[in-house]
Structures are given as structure tokens and as C-alpha cells.
User: Fold these one by one.
Assistant:
Number 1:
Amino acid sequence: MKNYLAGALFLILSGCATYAGLNFEKLFGPEEVQERIVAHDFSQARYFEEQVQPVLDKRCVVCHACYDAPCQLKLTSPEGIDRGASKALVYQGARLRATAPTRLYEDAVSTGEWREHGFYPVLNERLQRADANIEAGVMAQLLIQKQQYPLPQDTILDDDDFDFSLDRSFFCPTSDNVHSYMEENPLWGMPYGLPALANDEQQILLGWLRQGATMSAPVPLSDDMVKRIDKWESYLNQDSLKQQISSRYIYEHLFLSHFYFSDVEEKQFFNLVRSSTPPDEPVKRIATRRPYEDPGVDRVYYRLIPEPETIVDKTHMPFALNDQRMQKWKEWFVDADYKVEKLPSYEAHVASNPILRSRYSSAFTLQISVR
């Protein structure tokens, strides 16, 4: 009897919410990208870092961390959260032509640009008011749904209720249809197929969402860390042809790595990226589909930038930087007895084939092979 009444109440509320969902623009105004990121020393920023992000890291990023996360929703950083979700699949076996990549931090640099790429918000972007932030927020609604309809008490979940197959269809609700999604799939609250958040975790996230989901800007690097980065960028961006070809080789093989300074006790990770701007200027990242493709500029600079996302094991490839590493690279690639008279081409048939002698000089290739 109790379950029947609860179900009836849910349907009534869902019906009202569905009706309201059709009028969100009338109730709360049009959607507009919000400024949610504040300086790291603001109290709201500290709350996000100390209370909210740990809950997301503990319960959410296990699914929402990678390039092909469900609905492309990445909850590993403020920029990923604010970007939101997309109905487009990253990997599509039936697709005959390549689609435009949607890599966070690379293929667009602002939430507004991501909206032009088809991403939609999971946070409320209408009137910034407590009730609107919950009613018109996809993330808030799916968290509430899980509390209202927790997992069945079965040891093994029913295949008719949950699909965990690799080729399953994804349902990516927007604020306009999230209530109908909840009505049709009452057990599909978030986290999907997993236990609901603990009550204190739920209250932290809902309280944060209710107040407008303010997030923190990155913490500035320490002076010591800036000096270390300057030292490595100075090495990687010397003008000699030997150094340019060496740095290109290093980047093309280690672009997926997370770099860290092994002599620093507190580990902070960095990405090596190609930039059209030299050291001492803001990084202007060069985004290409593959690391060896034509950068479209006369001179490429290799820059170290802080990794902005939560580190997860499935994408974590740590690589240590230290004086010994730099000395070895100098000995192998720069001080070795060979000449580089011309930099290799970025033409596809050359750049994509590491065996072609025209890509790197024969002497350089020999130096690499014997190591």
C-alpha cells in the first residue's frame, strides 16, 4: 500500500513537473550561459574544492571522466561540468565519415562555444533562483530521482531494468524533457545502476546546486613550480634544428602523459601541448586530430600546462621530469654526432609514417633506436 501511494505521488508530481517543464522559459526565462567560476580564494570556491568536488570524485567521475563518458558529460573539472552533455556519440561504428572532435579544453575554449557544438547544460541556465536551480537543473533532478526510487534490493540487478552493455543506447535528457525521462524510467536516477548518494553527500550537492553551482578557478602555481616549468620550456623550445626535431619527437610520443617533477614531494601533474605562442606568453593551444598533424603555424612551441581535471587511473600515464631526464635527452638527441639540415614535413604520408627516412634524419633515427 505504501509503495502504491509513493508511486501515485511520484506520477502526480511528475505530471506537474512535465507541464512545468514545457513552460520553463515562461517561468524562469531563456537559457543563458552563466558565470560560475570564481577566484580560488573566494569562500564559494573553497566550498566547491573542499566539499563538492570530493563527492563528485568519489561517486560520479568513475563513469563521467573519459572522452566517451555517458552523454559526453565530464564531471572532473568546473569546465566539464559547465559544458554539460551532448546527445552525440563519440564512437559510432556505423559512421562513414569522421565527425568533429569534442575534446574538453581543445576543440572549444568556452561554455558558449560548446553550446554552438551541440552541448546543453545539466545546470540551470535560466533565472538564477534557488527553486529554478533545482526544478530546471538536469543534474539536480536526476539526483532527486535516485533518492525517490533507490535501487531494488536484489543481489543482481534485473536486465530488463538496467543495460550495462558496451553498445547500449544512451538517454541524455535535457531540462525540457528530464521529467518525462524520470516518469518513463523511474529507476534510472543518478548514479545509474549504483546505490544512491549518502544523505550528507546528497545534501552537499543539492545545496551547492540550489545556490547556483559556483566553482573554483585554478589555484595559481607556486613560484618554485613556475621556475621548473620555465626551465623545461626553455630547453624544449631552443632554436636549433636538432632541438626542434627532438622536441617534436618527444611530444608526439608523450602527448598523452601526465608529467610531474619527481623531486617535489607534493605531486602536481602537467600536460605537454603544442602552442603557437612562445614561453612567457599565454598558451594558445594548437588543436589537431592527431599529434603529428600540421599545426598550421611556422613555429611550434612546446608548453607545459597544469592538468585541470581529476586524475583517474584509466587515463593516467605518469612521466617523471628531473635533471637526469633532461641530461639524457640532451645526450641522446642534441649532443649526439649527427646533422639536421631540414625539418621533416607535416604532410600526412610522411608525418603519419614513423619508418620513413624522410621524417627524421637517419642519424637521429639511429640515436633513438639504440636507446
Note: The longest strand covers residues 270-275.
Number 2:
Amino acid sequence: MQTSICGKLGFSSGTAKAVLRRVTDMIELNNERNQMIVSMGDIAPVFV
């Protein structure tokens, strides 16, 4: 599906694969971020 969309926009199939990989990486990073926020939610801030 991504290759057909990118093809219609004039991009190569390599570009479609790169975009798909970047989006996948961003989703994984966002999931990790959300997990860290939940796990660190109970930690009280320390001001020095």
C-alpha cells in the first residue's frame, strides 16, 4: 500500500520502505516513552 501511494506521488519504492521504517521506529519510540512515563509516574521530584 505504501509503495502504491509513494508511486502515485512520484517517489521510488526505496523511499516508501524508508518512510515505513521511520514511522515504525517513531511508533516504537513513542511506546517506550509512554511506558517510561507510566513507570516513573510514582517517583517524586527531587530538588537540590
Note: Residues 4 and 13 are 8 Å apart (CA to CA).
Number 3:
Amino acid sequence: MLSHSKVALEHHIAQWVTQTYAFKNSVNCELLDRPTLEKLIVRITVGKDYYWLRLYLGKPTSIEQLEEEASLVNELYAQGMQVAPPLRRQDGQFAGVLEITGNQLPGVLYANAIGVQETHLTVTQAEALGRLLAELHNHATTLRIKSRPTINYHFLAEEPLNYLAPWLGEKARSRVLAIAQEMRTIIWGNASALAVGFCHGDVHLENIKFQGTVPTLFDFESCGLSLCVYDLACYWRNRISTSSDQALRSQEWAAILQGYHTVRRLSAQELAAIPALATLRAIWVMALPAQPGATWGNDWLNDPDYIQAHLEGVEALAKVLST
């Protein structure tokens, strides 16, 4: 899509950032290599400070959605939440468009989250993460959301299964659909008991940094309106359910819940919904290469091992609820 060399593209972006944002020092850009072509991730260096620029290529992302994402994160930051804040452009907006070779790339710039990314959490760190998520969800129900996606059954299961239809056999599709419908009953059978609000949408250790025991959330690209426990389900699926060291991960999960409960008490229905939501998320993840605008190519989808591995993952998560 972009014919520029990496060096030329970095130079062009640096000029755009200098003109768009109120930086007084020189701007340097480093374009990160990505496994897909849906977006560009650019590290911006200004003096001793780092920032992260997201520019979208193939994925259909509107300025309105990016603006609302950044505005919501900025509101959380203004309320004292440990989140990496967005930067305003000189025109007062957060989101804007970079024009290059006839292409218009929507983009948004964020400050670098302070701290380091951990691969293993101490009990104290896990409790602090639980508290941060609970604080987020306490604020979440007060935020007004207009253009961000609603992360519901249609978003997590119905749409993904439609996207996957050309690559799933009828038997596999019927089985996954049956699992999805079972999860829907568990989650939304008593929906009035489940709090709904703004969610990060992709909580895992790669989107969290720790400065000692203090966590900071960043990368709200997948944020939207959902059940508050969806964030916990994302973490549980990515970190807890697949662990080979169940004793260690169980201790970590218990600490997260303990920290969470010091701020916001989860109901029995919310706790029961976590593995069910994790199962639906696994279906959504399986369909990522098939989503409209995805630039992964069909190699993933045409690989029977890719499909089979994800089907087994969905089955394994569903079995957690029956044990």
C-alpha cells in the first residue's frame, strides 16, 4: 500500500508529527516491524521522552472511533487512573490523518507508559493490577460511549463465525456455534446481575507496565462497551487458563481477585461469566484473520493446523465450566 522506503517513511512521519504536535525539540521516528499490515506502530523520540503513534492502513478505523478512544482514556487519566495518556494535536483534537502517496492514514499518539513489562507477577503486583481494573470499572459505568464497538454476543461470536464460514466445515461450525450459544446462556441468562461499562478490551501483560508494584494500562485500541468482567476474562484466558504452571497462575489469579474485591465486589454471576466470556473471546480471536480489512492473508485460514488449534482451544475453555 505504501511505496516509500522505511527511511523515507520515517522521515515523512517525523515531519508530520513535528507540524501536528507542539513539540519544541527535534522529533525522531522508528517504524516497528509488524506481522500484519493493518497498522503502523511508530516509536517517537523527543529529547528523552518516548511516545507511540498508531497509524491505520487496511483496517477500517474511523477518526471518530480513534477520537473517542483517546478522549475516554484522557478522561480516565484526568481522574487519576494509571493509564498512558493521549497527546492533543495543535488543533485541539486527539486523532487525525496523515496523508502519504494518496493514502489517508488515521492515527493517534500516546505517551509511553512508565515502567517495565513483566512476565511473572508478584502477589503484590497482581493485587495492584486487580485494584486498577476495579477502579477502571468503577469509572466505566459513568463514561458515555458513542462510537466504540459494543462487545457483546454478536461481536464475539455471531460475526466471527460468519467471517469464518468459508474455512470451517459444517460439523466444526455447528459445534462452535453450540458452544457459543451455551456460553451466551451462562453470561446473559441473568444479564441484570452484570455491570456494563467501558472496558479496555485487551487486558494482558503485554499491555501493562509496572513501576515497582504500580501498574499502568496502555493500548486501549480494543476498548468498547461491554460487561465489566470482560477485561478479567481477557486476562484469565491469556494468562491463567493456558498455563502449564497452574499452581503459580492460580496464586496470581487469586491475588488479582483479592485486589479487585478491595475496590469493587464481583457478584457470583460475574465470576461465573468470566470463563464463558473467555470462551467467546477465543472464538473472536480465531476469526481475526478473516475480519473485513484484515491483511493477514489467507495462509493462516487455509492452514488446517491453525483452525484445529483454535478449535481445540475453544473446546478446552468450554470444558472449564463443566469441571
Note: The first helix runs from residue 6 to 20.
Number 4:
Amino acid sequence: MSGFIDADTHVLETDASWDYLDPTERDLRPKTIEFQDEVHSGYEQMRAFGGRSKQMWIIDDNVSRRHPGDGRASGFGKEYQAEAMFLTDPSVRLRDMDELGVDKQIVISTFFIGAELERPITEAALTRSWNRWMADRVADSGGRLNWLVVPGTRTMERALQEIEFGRANGAVGVMLKGVEHGMYLNDPYFYPLYAKAQELDMTIGVHLGFAWRRADVRDISNLLPTPPAYVDNLAALMKGFYAVLASDLHTRFPRLRWVFLEGGSTWVQMIFQQHQRLISTSKPGSFVNSGNRTSVTIDPLDTAELMAEKKMYVACEVDEEIARIASITGRSQLIFGTDYGHNDVGCDPTGLELVTKREDLDADLAQAIVRDNALAAFALH
């Protein structure tokens, strides 16, 4: 087996991420605020979700978590070197990849997972700066650090320009959340973006995340206000998946690939089960398991064929029932990401190796998950 393909890794933003702002837009530069390190209510229950963010970015009147120092928000998980997480010295990250047996990584923003940028000019300016910063960070990686370009979707013309820039500078995909600015991913508003991604042979990377105006909804120094709030992030990913599954995007953009990252894959069965009920009961007068009406038969779907037809890939997690899930998604549609760079609920730095050691997985399936499927999903060579 050749080296692993890590389909979901992260970079942590620094002040340098905004050094590429256009001179006319430098007043939009995010500011930093910092909190004292006292123990607050709910601290212990939130340790499993990354603990406390001691610094925050201030963008206009919104906030987003910032990782200071070495980036550790809590005291568990692999302790990454700062040079690797912030990409101040990409060679440190490459050496870490060698140690982990990783051939290539897909590198994804941390800042844009949860930041809700309401002003179009702010979103366009910050995404432009981030993309140029990222392109410089990975330029000398020899093709090992691949990345997802971030489009400012509030201004589609500039978003398309950023996608073109990203492709010309090593990006292999486009980062989106499952719900973008209140719009589902099957909204025709996004068609120009999908057309551009297809034209440039880029993948749409839908990452776990729920953008909210954090100052309005939570204790500002917590990563999440309460554990159930994590479900908002997962729900957005599921909505993105279903927007693609239940739409005709695959006929409009037949060469476009989709990956769904950092939410595990167990929920995929539930989506398919509900989708089968929906399409079986869509006609007037049809009911399922009704006590006083005639029930309809739920016609089973060939879910694996559907996933392949729509070019949909899902990242699984090492503690899931992978063999069973593969029977639903198809063996060619599961990939794996370690969440390298983060210390939180999605992180499993040695997960790729652990997949290959699972005795319940045959060698061909393990190889597909940790390498072959990701090569196809991101059109890597």
C-alpha cells in the first residue's frame, strides 16, 4: 500500500492570514480579543468539544474562535507543533505526515467553518486574503499539501474569481458548509459556482459547520454554549448531503464530485431510509403503516448505485461500523480524514492506520478508504 490520503486536515489562521488584504479593504481586518483563564460554568462538560477558546476574532460585529499560541484548546489528543498547525513552517507538517504514513493531505480552513460574515464586502475581502495566504503556505510542498479554496458566496462574481485563483495555485476543491447563508446547496443561486468547479475539475468539499452570529447565541468564551449545540453543525452537514442526494444536480453538473467531511457516516443510513419513505409516499392518498388507510410498499433504493451516480463521498470515522456502512454507501464512496490540526471531537490523528488494522475490514476495502477513494474524490494523481 502506498501512503495514505488524509481527506480532512486543517490549518489554523494567524494574523498573517489577513496580510493579503487589498489596501482599500484593510479596515476590514479581523481584530483579536482575549479572555482570562478562569474556570467557567459548563467548562468540564465542554472539554470533550475542545474546551475553551481563550481568544476570539472580531469581524465587523461578529465573532469567531481563534487558536492562540500552539493552538491547543484543551489538554487531550495529539499535541501538534505550532509550525505545522499554523503552516509557518510547512516542512514540519510534511515531516509529521511522513511519520504518520500520509502521502497527501487536503487542508481546510478553521476560521471559515463557523464564521458568519454578513457583509458581502467583508466576506469577499477575507476570503481573497485567506486564499492568497494559503497558496503561499503550500506552494513548496511538492503537491503533498492540497487545499480547498474558500469562495465568498455572497458576491458570486468574486467567488468565481477566487475559484479560478485557487485552481491555478494548487487548490483541488471548493469549501462550502451544508447551509450557506441560509440557502440550501441545491439552490440555483449556486449553479454558477458549481459550473465553474466542474469546468476546472474541482471537488465541492462540504465540511461540518454551522455559521452563526456567535455573540448572539452563546457565552462568548465557550466553543459551544452546550453539548446539544454540536448537533447544529452535524445537521447542516446532513442538510447539505440531502440537498445533493434529492436534487438533479448530478444531471446539471454530471462531472462534479462532492465530499462530506467530519460528521462521520453513520447518519447516511438514516437519510436514505427517510428518503425512501418520502419518495414512496409522495403521491396523494399514500400512507405508510397507517392503521386506517391502505399502506404503500416502500420500494428499496440501490443506495450504493445512487451515491456513485451522484459522485458523493462521505468521510467515515474509525469507531463506526464501517463494513456495514460501506454496504449502504458502496465501497468506493467512503473516505477518511483525521482532522489533523485540531484537538476536538473529530480528531483522530492515527485513524488512517487504525482503519487498516481493523480485523472486520478486508484489505481491499481498507485500501479504498485510506487511499484509493480519496484519490478519485479529489482527482489527485
Note: The chain has one domain: 4-377.
